[in-house]
Every structure is written in C-alpha cells, then in structure tokens.
Write a structure and sequence with these properties.
heterodimer, A: mainly alpha, B: alpha+beta, seven-stranded antiparallel beta sheet
Chain lengths: 179, 260
C-alpha cells in the first residue's frame, strides 16, 4: 500500500527527468551502452532513497545520484584511464589571448570542440557539462558534486582554459591532426 | 579594479553569477583594458561553443520502459508489498527474514555490553524519517553552534555539546527537540551534500565506548557511541562508512571542545 503510493509519487516526480538523467550519464560515460547501465542503476538507487526527499527540487537530487552512480561504476569497471591527478593550484589559462585567437574560438567547429571536451580530465569535464549542458548554477553544481563552491569555480575556469588551449593548439597543428 | 582582481571574475560574469556591483566593476575594467576584454571574449566564445556542441540526446529505444519496469519490480520486492507475492516467494522471504533476524541477533550478541538491544537504533531511524517526512527538520535553524547550543537550555536537563564541522563538509543546519524511545533527546542536524544527518544526544550512564555501526537497513545507517555521560546516535541515508567517519569526527571534536 505504502510502497504503491511511493511508486506512484516516484513515477510522477522523478521519471519525468529521465531524458536529462540519461543525457548526463551519456555525457559522463561518453558511451551509450555504459550510460544505459548507469542510468538504470541510478534510478533503482533513487527509488530506494526516495523516502526522504519529499518537497525538495528533485532534478539536482537525481543528478547527484546519477553522478555518484557513475563514479561507483567507473571505479568498479576500472575505466579510470582519464583520471589524471589534478593539481588544483596550477594556473592553466594563458595570460594573453590574441585577437586572432579570439576569432578562432568564436568560429570553432563543433566536432573539434567535442574532441577537446572529451580530452578533459573527468573532474573538470563534469563541472563544465553541468554548467553548459545542464545549465546548473554554481550552487547547484556544488550540491550535485559535493564540492565546495570555490572548487566548482576554479574547476570550471580551468576547464574552459584547457579547452581554449586545446582549440588553439589543434588549429596551429593543422586541422587534420585530430581526425 | 586591477587585472588580477578582474581575471577570476570573468568566468562568473559570463555565467551570470556576479552580483550587480561586481558585474558593473568588471564591465568598467574590461571597457578600459584590452587584455581582459580579449580574455572575456575568449571565455564567452568557449561557453557559447560548448553549449552549441551539446549533443542532442537520443534515448535508446525502450530504455525508459525498461527502467520503469525495473523500478516497479523493485517496489514489488519491498517488504511492504508482501501480499502480492506468490506462496513460494513468501516462504523464501520468510526464510530470508528469519535468517536476517538470527544473524541480527548474533551481531547484537557480539555487541553485547555496548547496547542491550537495538530499539534505540530503530527509534532513532523512526525519528529521523519523521523529521524528514513532516518537513520539520529543525526547531532552531542555524549554522551557528553558539545559537543552537543555548537554544536547548531549559528544554533538556543536560547541555548537549554542539560542534562545528563545516571545515569537514558537514555544515550544521540546526537543532530540534525530539524523542528516542521515551527519552527526550537533542537532535542536532548536519548536512552531507544533500543528505541530512540527525545526531541524537541523550543522557547516559553507560561506559565510554567507540562509535559502532548498530544498524544499516532500508538505506539508513545508525552509528552509536557514549562518552562523558552522554549517549550519541547518528542516523542518515549516507553510507555506513561515511556515517562512521562523521561519528568519529564528532567524538573527537566533543572530546577536545571545552564544554560548560
């Protein structure tokens, strides 16, 4: 009886976010098959923990679960290839940007940018994707990732700095190198 | 505003995260500084570019239905819906349940001495769930230990220690008067990410002992310990390991903090 009511409430409030949850899993895992596994496990977990979440905004809550499920899954399946020990204190962004660089960044093609995004360390990539793909505020990103606000800000800034460097470097090496 | 002051604010200004005054100051600085203007343009270009690179999500056919089915069968497997089960399954569940009771009893027997039985843990979970369901997490919402601690004065016949754990990422949310069993208790509420932790504090005559996980069920973990004439019981839906770490931290901090 109670379980039935919980299920109905869950299907009404959490299931409508399925597309977004899958999208996040898809971007984090970079792979459809893995994203399916992660999103299914995340939904089962979400249902188990659903008892205590009446009345809160359920999108960031669900994203938190998807993200944590992804990290658990990654650890389990040893997909840790892209985990680079991050030195949070190293300044990544070049001080000076030239006018041609700005032009280049403004006209960068989507495929090249996607390849550069995929090259980012996972810790930077997730913050960038939560901001740009999911349009979360800094505070919401802090909630989803469990990171302090300052770390969210510096990781986002570094993610963009690395993208900028990657795009500029790629175009200087010639556009065929990465294909 | 100097360049070195403006630079860290460029990303937040692109993201609309600055308050009006800071946004104006950045605007003013950028208007007079070509280097920062280019840096801002680069940042904007990256942001716009990444948004444009957002792939269209194509849901794999049947995935949503599959997940919905998985959740439904999870709901059916939950003990509350026992009526719907076939007889053999009921038997299996009963067997599993008795095994659980036996192993639970064994575990408790192993713990004998620290806790007579697990009614405290069960009551604490019930109080925890109630505090979330009724949307009544705190009577005194405050992140300041010096506000929360005096609030309990006159409401309890002991002074519960309230420690600040913000530096360890367990921000204090407030306090509440509650009961564990028939005993009045101070419920001190912390957060771990989005998950509330209820720390129930009661008077105790028990011996000093270390935090021990006394119950982990239905997604809730309970960790209990006693120290200095006070019994502590932490309940949350965070992992048992994380809750034990929290408990150890509270114990260490309450031991070193000067209490009146």
């Amino acid at each position: 009886m109670q379980e039935q009511e919980k299920l109905e409430r869950f299907e009404l409030t959490v299931l409508p976010h399925f597309r977004e949850a899958y999208g996040l899993a898809r971007w984090l895992t970079r792979n459809e098959q893995d994203a399916e596994d992660v999103v299914q496990e995340a939904y089962l977990r979400a249902f188990r923990f659903f008892d205590g979440v009446r009345g809160i905004d359920c999108r960031p809550w669900l994203f938190t679960i998807v993200r944590n499920t992804y990290y658990t899954w990654r650890k389990r399946s040893r997909h840790d290839v892209n985990v680079i020990a991050l030195d949070e204190h190293v300044e990544e962004r070049a001080d000076a940007v030239s006018d041609p660089d700005v032009k280049l960044l403004q006209s960068v093609d989507t495929d090249r940018l996607r390849r550069c995004i995929d090259l980012l360390p996972a810790e930077y990539r997730e913050v960038l994707l939560l901001r740009e793909f999911e349009d979360l505020s800094y505070k919401e990103i802090a909630t989803v990732t469990g990171l302090p606000l300052g770390t969210v800000m510096s990781r986002l800034s570094r993610a963009r700095g690395r993208l900028q460097a990657c795009v500029i470097a790629c175009s200087k090496e010639g556009s065929n190198d990465l294909q | 505003m100097t360049c070195s002051e403006a630079r860290p604010l460029l990303d937040p200004s692109v993201d609309g995260e600055l308050d009006l005054r800071a946004a104006l100051e950045v605007e003013l600085h950028v208007a007079g500084c070509a280097d920062c203007a280019r840096a801002l343009a680069a940042c904007q270009a990256i942001s716009v570019g990444v948004r444009a690179a957002r792939p269209v999500v194509v849901l794999p056919a049947g995935l949503e239905a599959r997940v919905r089915r998985a959740v439904r069968s999870e709901a059916r497997a939950a003990p509350a819906a026992g009526k719907a089960h076939s007889p053999w399954r009921r038997t299996l569940l009963a067997a599993a349940a008795s095994l659980f009771v036996v192993s639970g009893a064994f575990a408790l027997w192993m713990l004998a001495g620290s806790q007579a039985d697990d009614t405290v843990a069960r009551d604490a979970i019930a109080s925890h769930v109630r505090s979330l369901m009724a949307d009544h997490l705190t009577d005194v919402p405050s992140s300041d230990q010096h506000t929360v601690k005096p609030w309990f004065e006159g409401k309890l016949d002991f002074a519960p220690p309230v420690v600040d754990l913000t530096d360890a990422d367990y921000p204090l949310v407030g306090g509440r008067l509650d009961y564990v069993g028939d005993e009045p208790a101070a419920a001190i509420v912390y957060m771990r990410r989005r998950h509330p932790i209820n720390l129930f504090v009661r008077r105790s005559t028990g011996n000093v002992d270390a935090p021990v996980l006394t119950r982990s069920t239905r997604g809730f973990a309970v960790v209990e310990w006693t120290s200095g004439g006070t019994a502590y019981c932490a309940v949350s839906d965070i992992s048992a390991d994380e809750l034990t770490a929290f408990a150890t931290l509270v114990r260490d901090r309450t031991a070193s903090a000067p209490q009146r």
